[in-house]
Amino acid sequence: MTPAYQGDVKQTIDILQSVLATEIVCTLRYTMNAVVASGLSSQSVKEEFDEHAKEEQGHMRLVAERINQLGGKPNFNPEGLASRSASEYTEGVNLVEMIKENLIAERIACDHYQELIRSLPTRIPATRIMMEGILVNEVEHANDMHDLLVAHQGTPSLRNRARLRDE
């Protein structure tokens, strides 16, 4: 952090702690799904889950590094992780449910990150640029999960979270 930094450091660190928790939860969920997914069509989906887990882990590392650069301590403590995260850790019982849960989580993360980006002052471009890059990747993840869901179930109804879970 340079002396010219004009943002509210504590607020920025708090925002990034939430992002860090969300990325940790997403890494764990995708990793679990990659390990346990089964069925005739599961191999390509497992590979997609695995790829997303690695990308989420990369986001996690970027965010932790940024927290550290700002003088904070990244919170990797598993205690309270679920309450700090914007998305939930859920385990689907079959391949389609896993895909749905990941799609829901990605859309929640996208909405959350868009809101956080809007709350960041324009005078702190490094954090904003990092978050915008992560958001672009999260949108790609959501699109991937949507495409997988269509491939495995047909056209999904994505009007709201409750309806998607009920399908």
How do you describe this structure in short?
By secondary structure, the protein is mostly helical.
Characterization of the model:
- By secondary structure, the protein is mainly α.
- It is 72% helix and 0% strand.
- It has helices at residues 9-36, 42-69, 81-84, 95-119, 125-153, 161-166.
- Helix 1 (9-36) runs antiparallel to helix 2, helix 2 packs antiparallel against helix 5 and helix 4 runs antiparallel to helix 5 (125-153).
- It is elongated, with a radius of gyration of 17 Å.
- The model is unreliable at 160-167 (pLDDT under 50).
List the helices and strands and how they pair.
Blueprint (H helix, E strand, L loop, with lengths): L8 H28 L5 H28 L11 H4 L10 H25 L5 H29 L7 H6 L1
Helix pairs in contact: 1-2, 1-4, 2-5, 4-5
